[in-house]
Design goal:
By secondary structure, the chain is of the alpha+beta class. It has three helices and ten strands; from the N terminus they run ααββββββββαββ.
């Protein structure tokens, strides 16, 4: 993508250089048609300036295949702040939704690797997150809630039931075609004498 941007920039710059050389030639060799040719060349220069302005934008490439043009105002560890082309509203977009950004300078910055969940068998790839900033720009597939419980023993801790519940969450998310789950609530208890241990967890499933 960076290569294509540079090629495009080179072609436009080359056209601009040829226009300037022709203009210099016309100024040194005035003829009957000088005024008309001069205006045509001047118009070409204006088109070049307009073209460069339209190219001088940041491009955001999303994992779902979409490309957005505009201005990136901030990049942090979890998200970016972005103005869409022709708008003055500042949007927050999670890095998890973005493959890369091609800045107007031509520099390309990678944002995140795509989580490729093709089937329920890919449940281990599903990522659990706890901050809403990590899902802005992703598509919600609905909420989910899972529970786990079992008989108490000295060797079982609350973490045992939490892990079982997380596994259920991941499997259900993969079954629905999701790749990220925002955890909304969770609780666990290891249990005790005459009391079973349990864990519960709720969240919202997201995809690209």
């Amino acid at each position: 993508m960076q290569y294509m941007f540079r090629v495009r920039y080179f072609l436009v710059a080359s056209a601009f250089l040829r226009t300037n050389l022709n203009l210099i030639y016309l100024i040194k060799n005035k003829g009957n048609n000088f005024n008309n040719l001069f205006m045509k060349k001047l118009f070409s220069i204006l088109l070049f300036i307009i073209s460069m302005n339209s190219m001088a934008q940041d491009q955001v490439f999303f994992h779902n295949g979409n490309v957005a043009k505009g201005k990136v105002s901030e990049v942090n560890d979890q998200c970016i702040k972005f103005y869409y082309e022709g708008e003055d509203v500042l949007y927050t977009i999670s890095r998890n939704a973005i493959s890369e950004i091609c800045f107007q300078s031509g520099r390309v910055q990678q944002m995140s690797q795509k989580i490729d969940v093709q089937s329920p068998d890919d449940w281990e790839k599903v990522r659990l997150v706890y901050d809403k900033n990590e899902v802005f720009g992703l598509k919600s597939l609905g909420q989910i809630e899972k529970h786990s419980s079992g008989t108490w023993s000295f060797s079982i801790t609350a973490g045992h039931f939490s892990e079982k519940t997380m596994k259920k969450i991941r499997k259900e998310a993969a079954n629905r075609g999701g790749c990220i789950v925002l955890i909304l609530s969770q609780q666990s208890n290891s249990g005790g004498f005459f009391k079973d241990g349990h864990a519960s967890m709720s969240g919202e499933i997201y995809t690209y």
